[in-house]
Amino acid sequence: MGVVDMTNPPTKDFFASPALSLSLAGIFRDAGATAAAATASASMEVEEGDEGSGGGGGSGSKKDDTVEISSENSGPARSRSEDDLLDHDDDEDDADKSKKKKRKKYHRHTADQIREMEALFKESPHPDEKQRQQLSKQLGLAPRQVKFWFQNRRTQIKAIQERHENSLLKQELEKLRDDNKAMRETINKACCLNCGMATTAKDGSITAEEQQLRIENAKLKAEVEKLRTVIGKYPPGASTTGSCSSGNDQENRSSLDFYTGIFGLEKSRIMEIVNQAMEELQKMATAGEPLWVRSVETGREILNYDEYVKEFSVESSSNGRPKRSIEASRETGVVFLDLPRLVQSFMDANQWKEMFPCIISKAATVDVICHGEAPNKNGAVQLMFAELQMLTPLVPTREVYFVRYCKQLSAEQWAIVDVSIDKVEENIDASLVKCRKRPSGCIIQDTTNGHCKVIWVEHLECQKNTVHTLYRTIVRSGLAFGARHWMATLQHQCERLVFFMATNVPTKDSTGVATLAGRKSILKLAQRMTWSFCHSIGASSYHTWNKVSTKTGEDIRVSSRKNLNDPGEPHGVIVCAVSSVWLPVSPTLLFDFLRDESRRSEWDIMSNGGPVQSIANLAKGKDRGNAVTIQAMKSKENSMWVLQDSCTNAFESMVVFAHVDVTGIQSVITGCDSSNMAILPSGFSILPDGLESRPLVISSRHEKSNDTEGGSLLTVAFQILTNSSPTAKLTMESVESVNTIVSCTLRNIKTSLQCEDG
Q1: What pLDDT was estimated at residue 73?
Q2: What CATH architecture does domain 510-691+708-753 belong to?
Q3: Do 261 and 206 contact (CB within 8 A), yes or no?
Q4: Do the domains spanning 112-176 and 510-691+708-753 agree at the CATH topology level?
Q5: pTM surpassing 0.70?
Q6: Third-level CATH fold of 112-176
Q7: What are 378-388's pLDDT values in tens digits?
Q8: What distance in Å separates the CA atoms of residue 55 and residue 107, rounded to the nearest whole number?
Q9: 451-466 pLDDT, tens per residue?
Q10: What SS3 state is found at 529?
Q11: What's the pLDDT score for residue 49?
Q12: Which CATH number describes the domain made up of 267-315+323-501?
């Protein structure tokens, strides 16, 4: 039969949503033609045949063609103009009855029929065949009439939703254009059209306003991109205005093109600088002695700065600047990740931040100078911002602007270089010019077996500032933000990802969880918990830390925040207390003690000295210390479950844990989604103290020895929910409670490890 299917209406223009019209004359001429009927104002049935059929479900001839049309306003109310029009059409059919043997009769659904179908539609927009048969008998309609009415009704609802979504997108785009227009007007006023410099000293004050406009513009871009992706009508990065004419070329350029008068550099000059930086990175990554000399004591490579100055003709940096220190390091390693995915993780700011959660507290792509060749980003250049941290509030963060350049060197080799550019970063925010990146980055070599060899070079120029005595050695030696730290974190995160995606996990590496879906849900929850922990304890500007005095003399820092709508954390007022201490034990020994469930009762005051039972143990790395466990602490009153994520690499270790709802974690074990499970992590961060020295014994075996002088830097952090109401005020009782937990935990750890006097 010639049935018109209304489930796929014609696509509408992105910016305009014109009302869909019904051409009645077209239906008269050809009952089998496609009817655009999403917004017709009545429901009707058109049947063609030698014999008419009533409004009921009587069947016509084999040549019957039926068109079902339903509207947004279908119901008992019908306009007078519709009735007049349809009556007029019936009169025309009667007049032509003598000329044509075939005649057409039009039957409208009654108000009762529409009401019943609307009622069922609200309960079930997709009725099954049995429901349609029952409804057709009840209303006296053919089953296909009911079927087409529901199809048309669904099409209407979809059209209404699309119009609403298009309206939202249009509003966002209009805001974006207005901001772009205001930004261009501001810059035109502030800059000379000939030389690009500020016209007067007074105009220099516009820089801050322009900067704010640019940041808001970047946010709007991100919001529009999210809307595009959600709606699915346009792929990410696609133009919303269709084919662009030459008149829109200015709007499609990088926004950096409009700032040459303020940044003081043309795009061509920036490209020249990043190409020079790429050449320097390649030399720094591959050169041996005399540029790099290996330390006999530590085994680390040390940059010969005199050779560096001669090789690269470096200008003196003492031109009026405060005294600066140079930190240079190089590290080589193999990571378990394919090359395209690894390159993508560096070029996407969010993925980059997630890859290094313990080092990066903030990251953003400020501007894209060159998009590069899709989809592999070859030749991409972008201005980026990062806030670098250590997992303690005692070490100030480092904020740095830099330009990142991605380039394919050969079929199997890529390079990613970062370099700070004086004019650019100083004009963005001169107050942040305390840390600059000299050409740094990595050379990535594909080894064709899912692995990549990475050579990492980190080269920083930092203004000297005061560092807490505990961390002075590890910071000033370059270990804290050096290549070894970046490489160890990269290897750990890539290995974690491989274990997360694995489908052939040995039983011994996944005890207590029966399904692969359950394993992934637990690992995903543990990773979110660790990310949250890293985000909560650093010296980032996200937090305001206050030093509090304690009776036992510990240096404890406290901050508070209010969670209003994040489903991943409990809603209300959250207090975080952190303390960092030095302990005369090796990092390995300290990590093994804290992650050992059999010794948990020695330091965890919440366990009340009771036994701890292992519920599940999931490996997430080759090292047995990299594991996610679920532990049950039993007491006389109740049983409390704890989710624990222990992580260790060549540089640092962490033990992160959180008390979880038993029912909720059991559902996660079965494979349910854990994204909305509220969790509040506490834990420990363990670092070497930086006092590396000559090994105490000399061995012919080429392996790392832990028998070196030095101890561990332990950071203890606890978070508690003090009030479930976000509007509540922080009380001194809450602060004292969390301080007591930190103090008691530290005292228990020192007692168990017999280092009370440390």
Answers
A1: 38
A2: 2-Layer Sandwich (3.30)
A3: no
A4: no
A5: no
A6: Arc Repressor Mutant, subunit A (1.10.10)
A7: 899 998 889 99
A8: 6
A9: 899 999 999 988 877 8
A10: helix
A11: 38
A12: 3.30.530.20
